[in-house]
Amino acid sequence: MDRKTANDFPQELLDLYDEYVHGQVGRRRFLERASQFAVGGVTMASLVAALSPQYAFAQQVPKDDARIAVSYEEYESPKGAGKMRGYLARPAKPAGKLPGVIVIHENRGLNPYIEDVTRRLAVAGFVAFAPDALTPLGGYPGNDDEGRNRQAQRKKEEMEEDFIAGAKWLHGHALCNGKVGAVGFCFGGGMANTLAVRLPDVIIAAVPFYGGQPAAEDVPKIKAALLLQYAELDQRVNAGWPAYEEALKKAGVKYEAHIYPGVNHGFHNDTTPRYDEAAAKLAWERTIEFFKKQLGA
């Protein structure tokens, strides 16, 4: 399949797809409303396929890259699901202990894009760990639609405890020097904010990509430095930004925020048409620079 970009679709359709993948409209309603865009010989099946992730595009760091070592690891989450599993990536020949970064997936489980992001962090010199919230339901099922369905079955509070346990596991890992950051995307962006609130003595730096914001009354609990990444066209998530910024300023939390012009929610995900290469590269460069500054590497 040819690679599509946001410019190949009407913004109304991209916004509708965003509503669908985040559960604001059901599949039947999405297909009904999207049918108006299936014109000129374009079928609904091909339209949905073009909008959906194409994981063949995602791999920037191969699984067998000689610079890194990867493995799936289990950890305990006593306040969450119990037994959890995640993807660990680290430099192949570390010179001593390294800072860690917990990587938090979107609302569909530990898919190939998130695993690749985890490997990118390892190449940059971090011990990176990406828990899979779908572990108690058999793990990421191989496609995002089923992944979303499975994640929707889990209780938000329980998943929160699973990621808290994952961050603590990484903090205590033999290869980690105890300095831990968090990066997350969409659902994971909101969870990165949550970890900054819930684990002020563990999370030193957090980078939420287009993530939901914590309640204003919880913001003073944050000790971490924050790098907040938003998409200009992401009206759904951006609606909470003004109140969050006001609370951050009031609490004296160290932060910087970037709103990337003309891009959509999910612009960093290089498997979908919403991917914007220039914005994604700049945002990732800022992310690595931020973690190196805050955590050392």
Describe the overall structure.
It is a single chain. Helix content is 37%, strand content 21%. The chain is built from ten helices and eight strands. The chain has helices at 11-21, 27-34, 44-51, 112-123, 144-152, 156-171, 187-198, 235-238, 241-251, 277-295, and strands at 68-77, 82-91, 98-104, 127-131, 176-185, 203-209, 225-231, 255-260. An eight-stranded mixed sheet has the order 1-2-4-3-5-6-7-8. A hairpin with a 4-residue loop joins strand 1 (68-77) and strand 2 (82-91). Helix 1 packs antiparallel against helix 2 (27-34) and helix 6 (156-171) crosses helix 7.
Write the layout of secondary structure elements.
Elements: H1 11-21, H2 27-34, H3 44-51, E1 68-77, E2 82-91, E3 98-104, H4 112-123, E4 127-131, H5 144-152, H6 156-171, E5 176-185, H7 187-198, E6 203-209, E7 225-231, H8 235-238, H9 241-251, E8 255-260, H10 277-295
Parallel strand pairs: 3-4, 3-5, 5-6, 6-7, 7-8
Antiparallel strand pairs: 1-2, 2-4
Helix pairs in contact: 1-2, 6-7
